């Protein structure tokens, strides 16, 4: 009896060995058993060329190959180069959004002077009431503050920022215009003073009248705080009596970091 059972298993084992896998695994969604059988038969065929490589279940169920991107229109690079050239026209300090003119180095008396002097007309699209004479380091700090500090601080109030009222820039003088004492950063072209923000709707936010109000105070305080970083010294109405009506920004650097009051 046992010999008969063993003999039966030996005879039918080749049949199961060559039979396709009929496991109870579920078929992929939307795929018929016939499609799977055809894919298995194709995969079992000898590979006669590179064109047939990878032709199996994976390729069958992946769908169409993604199309290659269309070729860029002719002259696109030239057009982009022209756009960059136009945006950089009239720019100084190597930054497209800093508009102005390069002027000869200023030689002042004593330690006064500006070696890489520029005269600005606008920064990040914001006009200036007068063209301040400063160096490129200060120009870049002003541009960064307007873009990342002033504009977000004002937001959409009054339609946004139109221009800044500049009340001081390069001047060969001491701090706070004192007769004696340390030389001001203004004397090195590293400082600019701002007294007001002009908005697109014609409204003006002044440091003197707006700093302590509920409507304009928060805007001015956010703008003042945002200048601490791009500039080394940031002074406002809370600093002393000399800065009640304007912000003083300069690019002096200190070991302990920016000085902001």
Question: What's the helix and strand layout?
Answer:
Layout: H1 2-18, H2 33-44, H3 57-62, H4 76-88, E1 91-92, E2 95-102, E3 106-107, E4 113-114, E5 117-123, E6 126-128, E7 133-135, H5 136-154, E8 161-168, E9 191-199, E10 204-206, H6 207-210, H7 217-226, E11 233-235, E12 247-250, E13 259-260
Parallel strand pairs: 6-8, 11-13
Antiparallel strand pairs: 1-2, 2-5, 3-4, 5-6, 5-7, 8-9, 9-10, 9-12, 11-12
Helix pairs in contact: 5-7
Provide a brief overview of the structure:
The chain is an alpha+beta fold. The chain contains 7 helices and 13 strands. The model is unreliable at 9-17 and 48-55 (pLDDT under 50).
Folded structure, characterized:
- With 261 residues, the protein is α+β, with helices and mostly antiparallel strands.
- Helix content is 31%, strand content 21%.
- The protein has seven helices and 13 strands.
- It has helices at residues 2-18, 33-44, 57-62, 76-88, 136-154, 207-210, 217-226; strands spanning 91-92, 95-102, 106-107, 113-114, 117-123, 126-128, 133-135, 161-168, 191-199, 204-206, 233-235, 247-250, 259-260.
- Strands 1, 2, 5, 6, 7, 8, 9, 10, 11, 12 and 13 form an eleven-stranded mixed β-sheet that branches. The chain has a two-stranded antiparallel sheet with strand order 3-4.
- Strand 3 and strand 4 (113-114) form a beta hairpin.
- Helix 5 packs antiparallel against helix 7.
- The model is unreliable at 9-17 and 48-55 (pLDDT under 50).
């Amino acid at each position: 009896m046992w010999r008969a059972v063993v003999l039966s298993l030996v005879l039918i084992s080749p049949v199961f060995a060559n039979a396709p896998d009929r496991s109870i695994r579920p078929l992929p969604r939307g795929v018929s058993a016939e499609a799977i059988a055809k894919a298995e038969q194709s995969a079992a065929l000898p590979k006669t060329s590179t064109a047939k490589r990878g032709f199996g279940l994976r390729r069958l169920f992946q769908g169409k190959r993604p199309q290659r991107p269309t070729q860029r229109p002719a002259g696109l690079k030239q057009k982009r180069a022209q756009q960059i050239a136009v945006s950089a026209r009239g720019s100084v300090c190597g930054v497209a959004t800093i508009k102005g003119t390069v002027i000869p180095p200023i030689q002042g008396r004593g330690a006064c002077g500006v070696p890489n002097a520029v005269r600005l007309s606008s920064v990040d699209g914001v006009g200036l009431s007068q063209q301040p004479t400063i160096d490129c380091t200060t120009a870049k700090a002003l541009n960064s503050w307007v873009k990342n500090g002033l504009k977000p601080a004002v937001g959409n109030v009054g339609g946004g920022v139109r221009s800044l009222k500049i009340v001081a820039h390069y001047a060969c003088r001491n701090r706070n215009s004192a007769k004696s004492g340390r030389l001001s950063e203004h004397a090195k072209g590293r400082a600019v003073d701002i007294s007001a923000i002009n908005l697109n709707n014609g409204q003006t936010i002044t440091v003197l009248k707006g700093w302590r109000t509920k409507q304009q105070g928060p805007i001015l305080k956010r703008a003042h705080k945002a200048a601490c970083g791009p500039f080394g010294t940031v002074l406002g109405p809370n600093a002393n009596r000399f800065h009640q009506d304007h912000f003083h920004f300069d690019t002096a650097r200190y070991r302990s970091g920016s000085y902001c009051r």
